[in-house]
Structures are given as structure tokens and as C-alpha cells.
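This follows on from our talk about sequence and fold. I would like you to pick a protein and set down its sequence and fold. Go ahead and set the record down below:
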Amino acid sequence: MSSASNQAASQWFAACPRGLENLLAAELMTLGAKSTRETVAGVYFEGSRATGYRACLWSRLANRILRPLTTVEAADGDQLYTQLKAFDWSGVFNVRQSF
């Protein structure tokens, strides 16, 4: 992977116990996160892949660091699956990979 793709800003989500969101946001900023936004039991933030990895490695408050691939609005499970089928998964997995 090129260093340019490593430096492109991505959206991330850091999960944490309730009540620690403001402390986690501050911690993530020290690790290089940009544009933090607190929510219940977590913090959304922007950063490069290196920032996400740094948060995974060094955060003392986050339970998990997640990188959302897409967002959809769905009223029920059928709409959710229809919209997820429309997502371009080839950018994430090739035909020989699974999760």
C-alpha cells in the first residue's frame, strides 16, 4: 500500500465505557486524531491509517477502534441488506477473501 493511501483521512470510531467519552476524545487528539465528535459510549474521529493504528496500540481508554466502511439508512433488515449489497465490496475484499 502506498504511503499516500496511508495518509488519506478516514473516519474512525473509538468505543469506550460510558462517561469516559471526553477523556477519550482528548486522548485521541494527543494521538493525532482530527475532528473528534463525542457520542454515547464512544468518539468519532478523523485520521490517517497510521492514526487509527496508533489509537489501537496506545489508547488506554478505548475498548475498540473501528473504521466504518459505509453508512446507510434502513427502516428494516430488508432495506439494510439491499443497501449493503449495493456497496462496492471489491475495494475491501477480493473474491478469494471473506470476513
Summary: The beta strands are 10-15, 34-39, 42-47, 64-66.
